[in-house]
């Protein structure tokens, strides 16, 4: 009994541990301090906990530096911040922008980030030009809604922010001390995010009449005075460690959030919308990184050469000698390698010729099927045209609608015949690989279409299964089509030559993974009698009239695509062979997983 109770306790503990949801941390820019950020965003995390099963979200507040470090250490998987920090981080880490915030104010606009340059109401400063040589305060040099937006304005006015102000004090977060410094006369002006002044007035911290905004403007629908252009609002982004399925679930939950939801009210937003263009922020960042040529390094080099003239001359001589030696080595290498390059070119031409010979061999084997496919549309065209002639001869007044219907049928059949010829010409005109975007599902359908008559004649069933969400690959269309035809034709011949009477079956499975597609062709033939390396060797064949090039060419073509080709017997204790082709997704740099 004691052992039984112990087992039950272990099972219960294991089930509880197994059911524990996965923990995720969402970095949040804490403009008004950590405590305010936690209070503001905790209901949003609770909302996501309810909407996304098996996941638990937590707030991770911090300033720019803290969030950058947390991202580097992998302590956060998501981040809610302004586009400025997002673009800064996206240059170092792969991030996916899921949704953009709709502001609680300003009629729910998605452009609500800007700067307000604030001075005391009784100061003598009227424009930004009056602040030349003065002391200003800002929260952070990386703050888009604050210092960076003001720098963009200064660039447009021809001012150099590095030298324009007498001193710039960065006070960090929260934002309250910025206006306190103006009030106490410690700084001449404060560069604050949009609505900072109005928020502090609403909280009873300051009096509105004691302050004034420089370069004031109020765009339509905006409730606060601003001094700069408005930029896109905060957004919700995910790191590359987050799965695609989880990102989709979170994005859907954010888009479904209504304005009257307690989470939206506490977060001071009207919901979320699809990510909006960041072109304005990108242009601003380009301006922020425009710098005049820096001559200080050349001055340092010149001074060093003056102080160490003999070492400088020696360094120049060593550099010239090393350069001449390098050029001489390159010349000798080019001279020696020219013959090797010519030999490689000839071998490549011979390989293409052999591949073309293999294509011609396949066309010869399926010639009867091709003739049948072409004869069918030609016979239909003849029948439709004769019927049309008889109809026109038997009627005094032509039936226009009937004639149009006949002509459409004739056009459809002629197009069908042209497609057959086009596919065959593509196989015969094999040339060097031309990489384009290819739909592999279409290639599979064309391969089956070319072999359809022979499959029917030998009563072999062929089925196609698709897993995952299909995508394009970058491939040589003709080469990959030849690989598929070779593999299907090999399975067809193996089943036909099998001594055991059975219903022939070929199954083609396409499994679309995140970064690659796995093509698996399985038959119920006799399987491989030898190991795969021997079977795929050049000029080795088990067919009486074979060339021994098919599988070797398949392996070469797949290797040219940076893919992987495997051939083996079935693993389910049934007779048959399995051909596996692994190909990368378009644009993927990830290695192939076998």
UniProtKB/TrEMBL annotation:
CDD domains in the cross-refs: HisKA (cd00082)
SMART domains membership: HATPase_c (SM00387)
One Pfam family matching this protein: Phosphonate-bd
Signal peptide (UniProt feature, chain positions): 1-19
Keyword Cell membrane in record: no
Residues of the Histidine kinase domain: 369-587
Protein name: histidine kinase
Organism: Shewanella pealeana (strain ATCC 700345 / ANG-SQ1)
